[in-house]
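Thread: Modeling a multi-component assembly for a lab meeting

Hi all, long-time lurker, first post. My supervisor asked me to bring a structural picture of a complex we are working on to next week's group meeting, and I have zero experience with this. I have the sequence lines for every component (510 residues in total). Could someone generate the structure of the whole assembly? Inputs are pasted exactly as I received them:
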Amino acid sequence: MAPGAARAMFRSGLVTPTSGWCDGFAQANLIVVPADWAFDVLLFAQRNPKPCPVLGVLEAGEVTGPLLGGGDVRTDVPLYTVYRDGEAAGTRTDLLDVWREDLVTFALGCSFTFEAALQEAGIPIAHIDQGVNVPMYRTNVPCEPAGRLSGPLVVSMRAIPASRVADAVRITSRYPAVHGAPVHVGAPQELGIRDLGAPDYGDAVQIPDGHVPVFWACGVTPQAAVLESGVPFALGHAPGHMLVTDLPDWQYQVP
Amino acid sequence: MAPGAARAMFRSGLVTPTSGWCDGFAQANLIVVPADWAFDVLLFAQRNPKPCPVLGVLEAGEVTGPLLGGGDVRTDVPLYTVYRDGEAAGTRTDLLDVWREDLVTFALGCSFTFEAALQEAGIPIAHIDQGVNVPMYRTNVPCEPAGRLSGPLVVSMRAIPASRVADAVRITSRYPAVHGAPVHVGAPQELGIRDLGAPDYGDAVQIPDGHVPVFWACGVTPQAAVLESGVPFALGHAPGHMLVTDLPDWQYQVP
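Re: Modeling a multi-component assembly
Sure thing. I ran the full set together rather than chain by chain. Output:
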């Protein structure tokens, strides 16, 4: 399916995680803040490039751009989250009635981009095979603060057969602009994760025997920082429910 | 010489271009703007990563950081430039009497970092051999605008023996965080450069027969944007007179 067609379905109200959608096109995390907070967010991204690889920025007043030709960032994502005064204030299927002219939108790379490459190499992706959202966890690893923003690293988890962990590292290393290599392999307790079956975002997956939990930096990280830092108003995609962009995946692969 | 020792010499008043200084340590371009302009500058850098690779940012009120352990960004560069209302307002050897608490400092990678690698490969660097500053030119290539900032790409030029141009491309490609591969090889008129002997910044160099002018994106680019965009107040290093940082060069090399 073409990205524009997928965005039209989401604009019409379809709510679904987007892992596996629109093979070959990059998906993006969103973080949207008032202009007064935009420098803090961009500096946070510059200092934390693994969780926050910037694919594009819509300046204040802009609702579309090259990432979503003809689309509207307020309507074209399956599900959004709203934050007020550092607290989650619900989800919604569009942002039309909460939009403000001073909002700046950051689109960040998403690990869904390298999932196709993992699958092509014969590495199973549990959440795709099980038809659920990818599990994500807040860790005890602090990000580098920036201005008024600080918060923990958020990671996504994929259970990889032990014999394929090295391949998964090698393959995802080739995609530095979409989180790149894992930040952690095995030993979830070292990240402060007590129960892999109770992710902070997304869905739990069954981990088959002989599979190892492998953790990648996740673009939900700035949403955790918005919560932690008491940002007065912010918006984001609902975890796993991404902006499907017009950007081809291959351009994020390095030799 | 250790970077701290070089910075101490500059702090004491030595004025000199820094190409060839402190082998093995990264040098940095500076652009310093009031907080009100900081988002525009960081977004300009994000959209123009070849001329503006961000090595570090000192937030408003900060004058030191990990890039210059124990140093002071207001005194430790050999020569600075001042801009007022989009016009050059002279150079000075320190910034103490023009400093403001709301100033944000951006340190950007510098092509001096890969010069040692070129020399190790036996590629001569004319401006080092001739003991002058590297020649730099404003081009007719527009940068991607960001907020209120727009301006032309600035390039540095090295004359490379025709038989070594491919090597120079290959070697500098390994340093994407310090401008990376050339943006242009030969044909200076295509960049709008009419006379290689009259650079806009730095010094002219003799180009030996059989050498080809090769152009790299240059970290003076945001200073050209500050001029072009009428920024009320900004500071920078004087072209070629860089901040010598404590960051080892090798960490900017990719396989």
